[in-house]
Amino acid sequence: MSLQEAATLHNGVKMPWFGLGVYKVKDGSEASESVRIAIQNGYRSIDTAAIYKNEEGVGQGIKESGIPREELFITSKVWNADQGYESTLAAFDQSLKRLELDYLDLYLIHWPVEGKFIETWKALEKLYKDGKVKAVGVSNFHIHHLRDLLKEAEIKPMVNQIEFHPHLTQVELKQFCESEGIQVEAWSPLKQGELLEDETIKEIAESYRKSPAQIILRWDLQQKVITIPKSIKEYRIIANADIFDFELTNEDMDRINALNKDERCGPDPDNFDF
Predict the structure, then answer these.
(1) What are the site positions for Lowers pKa of active site Tyr (predicted)?
(2) Phi, psi for 226 (deg, rounded to 5)
(3) Does 3.20.20.100 match the CATH number of domain 6-257?
(4) pLDDT, mean of residues 211-223
């Protein structure tokens, strides 16, 4: 497995298993630098969102990387305030404009806004049919949200991006997505850094001569979960991706799975007010 290795989504589109997240990365040079550095170090997938307010910087970094657009996989997301049919189409156009791109590889509904996400999904289906986006999906959807969506959807979501890390393994949701052919993607895979201090993970890391972050990100991949850790430091962007030269044993996978406490660092998709 290598940094360019990709999962095949249910519509045949290839999405890299590993990418760069840019949540809380400042727009301007911080965003453009981290994106350029990641791409120049072999990353091909970049994940942003309208609400991150850094799409311009991300677009700039893509340009400066010098890598042909068709070799990259770019994701953005429609924000809650823009949900609904027409407003989603307009929001998508704005995202494209800020990124200065002709199309997106993946567009996601950021949160399951009650009473709105079905209409929003219809807009994503239109964007997909019009060829403006190669794949469509959702983020932060629980099983019941997915069931509601699948009843109305003409096109099944290709991806569900969820909070996923050793303290929140979301086993049932992951199994449901797998049974529906929906690829799971992890946001906040390191639980915003908290898991790097976990004694079990530190112990496992020592035995492989890897860092705690590398152990967790490798655990994601071995569970067939796409992962997008965020960093703005070049050495860490490079180190995070250095996870393709070793494999965790089943025993160590089980030890990490056993750390689950169903504990979130982000909001619960059943209870958010933004």
Answers:
(1) 77
(2) -70, 140
(3) yes
(4) 98
